[in-house]
């Protein structure tokens, strides 16, 4: 199956939006690590309804007019990864959680490192807010879009 994609500009750089007929599959960073998200064949389709709606909702988010997303999501990963990514969706706008808190939430209290690895492979950044996951000590930790982007996203949510 060929996936659809388009690129949209944002305050954190060009984002590549990827969708299937079922929903949003990925939001890729401009300098994303090759292979971080496995996708397969893609065809440019800027008018695809999921891609157009994702771009619109992202603009609203970056402009401070949106605190949540309402998009069909098509997560592709292992069962564990999908559980972590589903937990990301429960973190309220403007709040953060630690990797340990996510591990406890999904019933795997000793899996903080595995949660970190799954978080790093989150294909739907921003919408599934992996930027809201921080170290137990409150430090900003690894982020596919870079720590500057993570800080910018958290700043938007703080109203900075």
TrEMBL record:
Subcellular location: Cytoplasm
Domain Methylated-DNA-[protein]-cysteine S-methyltransferase DNA binding: 79-158
Biological-process GO terms, alphabetical: methylation
Catalytic activity: a 4-O-methyl-thymidine in DNA + L-cysteinyl-[protein] = a thymidine in DNA + S-methyl-L-cysteinyl-[protein]; a 6-O-methyl-2'-deoxyguanosine in DNA + L-cysteinyl-[protein] = S-methyl-L-cysteinyl-[protein] + a 2'-deoxyguanosine in DNA
InterPro entries registered for this protein in UniProt: MethylDNA_cys_MeTrfase_DNA-bd, MethylDNA_cys_MeTrfase_DNAb, MethylG_MeTrfase_N, MGMT, MGMT_N_sf, WH-like_DNA-bd_sf
Molecular-function GO terms, alphabetical: methylated-DNA-[protein]-cysteine S-methyltransferase activity
Active site positions, chain numbering: 130 (nucleophile)
Known EC number: 2.1.1.63
SUPFAM superfamilies noted in UniProt: Methylated DNA-protein cysteine methyltransferase domain, Methylated DNA-protein cysteine methyltransferase, C-terminal domain
Keywords (A to Z) from UniProt: Cytoplasm, DNA damage, DNA repair, Methyltransferase, Transferase
Family: Belongs to the MGMT family.
Name of protein: Methylated-DNA--protein-cysteine methyltransferase
UniProt organism field: Sphingomonas agrestis
């Amino acid at each position: 199956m060929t996936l659809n994609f388009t690129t949209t500009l944002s305050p954190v750089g060009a984002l590549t939006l990827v969708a299937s007929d079922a929903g949003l599959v990925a939001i890729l960073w401009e300098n994303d690590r090759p292979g971080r998200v496995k996708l397969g064949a893609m065809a440019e389709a800027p008018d695809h309804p999921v891609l157009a709606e994702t771009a619109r909702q992202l603009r609203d988010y970056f402009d401070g007019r949106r605190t949540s997303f309402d998009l069909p999501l098509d997560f592709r990963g292992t069962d564990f990864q999908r559980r972590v990514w589903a937990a990301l969706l429960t973190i309220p706008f403007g709040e953060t959680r630690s990797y340990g808190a996510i591990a406890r939430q999904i019933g795997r209290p000793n899996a903080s490192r595995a949660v970190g690895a799954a978080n790093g492979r989150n294909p739907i950044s921003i919408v599934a807010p992996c930027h809201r996951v921080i170290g137990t000590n409150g430090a900003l930790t690894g982020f596919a879009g870079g720590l500057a982007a993570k800080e910018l996203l958290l700043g938007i949510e703080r109203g900075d």
